[in-house]
Amino acid sequence: MRKHGQNSRNCPQYNIYIVEKNSQDTKKSPRKAEKPDIDERIYNILDKAEKISVKLAQINEIRKKYNKKKNKKYKKNYKIDKKTGTVLLKKDKKAKKAKALKKYKPPKKKK
User: Fold this and answer.
1) Beta strands in the chain, from DSSP E residues, in sequence order
2) Residue 67 in contact with residue 75, Cβ under 8 Å?
């Protein structure tokens, strides 16, 4: 039922909308949509569920990689206090001193 349009008449006293049929509405389509069998419907549902699960697995894998990188970064810069459970910033490690280079001694000449 349509409320507005060219082929509808309004009956305000009863608040009823009357729809006149078009000549196109009375024609039947040459191909009538057949309902799929129960087997096909089950197969389609399972196929869609499988596709959804694959997409969710891909999203989960991306999320795990992101969390792994984030945790690695946190472990590098922070540590957790075992008594209180608070996150503490690690102290920066001091750079090691450069080792003194040994002087090159030329080989002794034989006489």
Assistant:
1) 8-11, 16-19, 78-80, 87-89
2) no
Q: Which residue has the tokens 């009863």?
A: 14
Q: Which amino acid is at 59?
A: I
- Rounded CA-CA distance 88/79 in Å is 5
Cα–Cα dist 49/23, whole Å: 42
57-108, pLDDT tens digit by residue?
999 999 999 989 888 887 777 887 778 878 777 777 777 888 888 888 888 8
Cβ pair 77, 89 in contact under 8 A? yes
Structure tokens at 102: 């040994």
Task: List, in order, residues 6 or more apart from 10 with CB less than 8 Å away.
Answer: 17
* DSSP-assigned beta bridge partners for residue 89: 78
